[in-house]
UniProtKB/TrEMBL annotation:
<dbReference type="InterPro" id="IPR010079">
    <property type="entry name" value="Xanthine_PRibTrfase"/>
</dbReference>
<dbReference type="GO" id="GO:0000310">
    <property type="term" value="F:xanthine phosphoribosyltransferase activity"/>
</dbReference>
<feature type="binding site">
    <location>
        <position position="27"/>
    </location>
    <ligand>
        <name>xanthine</name>
    </ligand>
</feature>
<comment type="pathway">
    <text>Purine metabolism; XMP biosynthesis via salvage pathway; XMP from xanthine: step 1/1.</text>
</comment>
<comment type="similarity">
    <text>Belongs to the purine/pyrimidine phosphoribosyltransferase family. Xpt subfamily.</text>
</comment>
<dbReference type="Pfam" id="PF00156">
    <property type="entry name" value="Pribosyltran"/>
</dbReference>
<feature type="domain" description="Phosphoribosyltransferase">
    <location>
        <begin position="40"/>
        <end position="160"/>
    </location>
</feature>
<dbReference type="InterPro" id="IPR000836">
    <property type="entry name" value="PRTase_dom"/>
</dbReference>
<keyword id="KW-0660">Purine salvage</keyword>
<comment type="subunit">
    <text>Homodimer.</text>
</comment>
<dbReference type="InterPro" id="IPR029057">
    <property type="entry name" value="PRTase-like"/>
</dbReference>
<feature type="binding site">
    <location>
        <begin position="128"/>
        <end position="132"/>
    </location>
    <ligand>
        <name>5-phospho-alpha-D-ribose 1-diphosphate</name>
    </ligand>
</feature>
<keyword id="KW-0963">Cytoplasm</keyword>
<feature type="binding site">
    <location>
        <position position="156"/>
    </location>
    <ligand>
        <name>xanthine</name>
    </ligand>
</feature>
<protein>
    <recommendedName>
        <fullName>Xanthine phosphoribosyltransferase</fullName>
        <ecNumber>2.4.2.22</ecNumber>
    </recommendedName>
</protein>
<dbReference type="InterPro" id="IPR050118">
    <property type="entry name" value="Pur/Pyrimidine_PRTase"/>
</dbReference>
<keyword id="KW-0328">Glycosyltransferase</keyword>
Amino acid sequence: MKLLQDRIRQDGVALNGQVLKVDSFLNHQVDAGLTMEIGKAFAAEFGAQGVTKVLTIEASGIHFALATAVALGVPFVYAKKKKAVTLTEDLYTVPVHSFTRGETFNVSVSKRYLQAEDRVLIVDDFLATGDALLGLQEIVRLSGAHLVGIGAVIEKSFQEGRAKLEATGVKIHSLARIKSMSPEHMEFLEEESLTPVATK
């Protein structure tokens, strides 16, 4: 997605070869127009898959999941990192390690909102180590729903996340794939998708 790549080049800040700050336009202060374009891009990629739910994890994936859900005309659900007092029903819960925070969270989704008949698209802001996306994938598996694919806004292709997800056979689509980065330089890979998952 050239619009996104250009914005990362313009306003993204690579602190080093591993950490990219995009908090001026994606995950602290948010460019709403760009976010809606990101949702349209995911909808264009996965719209033929019969998606019934978009799934993400709080908090940085929520606005991208919302934009995608709006473009697809379906609800979105986000996995919660802390159990609220109002969350009293049965839950799907899995541990997820956060690369950026250096912590492991138990994330939960109510069984009421993810069921076996659903066709789920997972959307998140970053694909790096893949741990958060693997956790969401496990929640989909526990629910019995069908995972149609994973959309990542930004992928750090030099980290191991894609290989972990690729091993599961899921379709992955990243809008900006970073090959390498440093405070002085940013190099992108071309957009591509992996082999699609078989549909039911």
